[in-house]
Amino acid sequence: MPSSKPDASHILFGVATSLERLDGSLDAFAHWAGGTNTRILAVIEPHPDASLVEHRARKLGFTLTIIQSDAEYLDRYFSLVRAFFQHRDENTLWAAFIDDDTFFPSMSNLVSRLGSYDAGKPQYIGGISEDFGQMYNWGYMAYGGAGIFISMPLLDELDRFYDACNAAKVTGDRRLARCIYAHTTTKLTWEPGLHQLDLHGDASGFYESGRPLPLSLHHWKSWFDVDMVALSKVASVCGEECLLRRWRFADDWYLINGFGLVKYSAPLNKKEGEDLRMEMTWQESAYAGGDGFEHTLGPLRPKDEGKISFRLRGAIRCEEEGGEEGGGNCVRQFYVRQQPESSNGPDQVLEVVWRSV
Questions:
Q1: Domains in the chain and their CATH numbers?
Q2: What pTM was estimated for this model as a whole?
Q3: Is the pLDDT of residue 289 over 90?
Q4: Could you give the CA distance from residue 31 to residue 105 in angstroms, rounded to a whole number?
Q5: pLDDT tens figures, 122-132
Q6: CA dist list (Å): 219 to 100, 125, 282
Q7: How far apart are CA 197 and CA 211, in angstroms?
Q8: Distance, first Cα to last Cα, the chain
Q9: Are the C-beta atoms of residues 6 and 104 closer than 8 Å to each other?
Q10: Strands (DSSP E) along 203-263, which ranges?
């Protein structure tokens, strides 16, 4: 059965984006922010329809405060430091920088993991890039798409140096890191569960790995295409803990809940640890060292060119169709295997029905 929503009133999230992209992210935000008492600040360029988006967020169950600014995007991103300082309250323990395509599969897991850190001390917590080439270019820092979590003692320090730090016109995440490194003694704490997901092209190997549910996911509507709203719908039946869980069937088919069904060209060998090796389906790193992803995602195995894949293409709650005979909460998932253009055969569709009783 799905678990109840956690209280996340001590986390204040912030994002710099456009109104159009913000509005397109609300349904995904609702999965993790809805009903948790958290708040989201959004710094956007001036737009006459900002209040309409705030109202839609309230209908989805969370509080969104839009701050309109004429500043350039990178300045708007760093301005979240001052916005966090001004909008925090007596309950706020963490300020979280996110992108408009940052997704937290389980708010319960995130709240629990943050609870393992001492928020009474300066803390700079985040995920690094999976691609060593990205780190080679931008440095060792927390990447905002994965989520960057700043404790209030560190926020106090950053606010004192805000003007000096904002004068450094570098990228948003790097400006924040440079400010922390230059003016405080706090260093990055790498939280491996936070995923920037700098994976170009096909990221299916990451999602199909069967590893523990990530704390965060990113780039799902830009560098690759994964519908987080559809993926997360089944949580209303089986809980957040069942998202992306991998089940192995007797005929060596795997169901990765909310993502796909797959049959590899050769069965995975548990004795040799192949179940733990993530299939590297994405593009190679530009880093010349040849080990671009092992530091975060290893162990890896080559892409299986012969595997059969069905991908989730939609999910609906049965009550959205007017209910289902027999009662109980229900979600229908539709997984599709697309045939190549050279084939004359139709696409194959497999429906999976989840029902709580």
A1: 11-190 (3.90.550.10), 204-355 (no CATH)
A2: 0.94
A3: no
A4: 8
A5: 999 999 999 99
A6: 9, 20, 13
A7: 15
A8: 9
A9: no
A10: 246-248, 253-256, 260-263
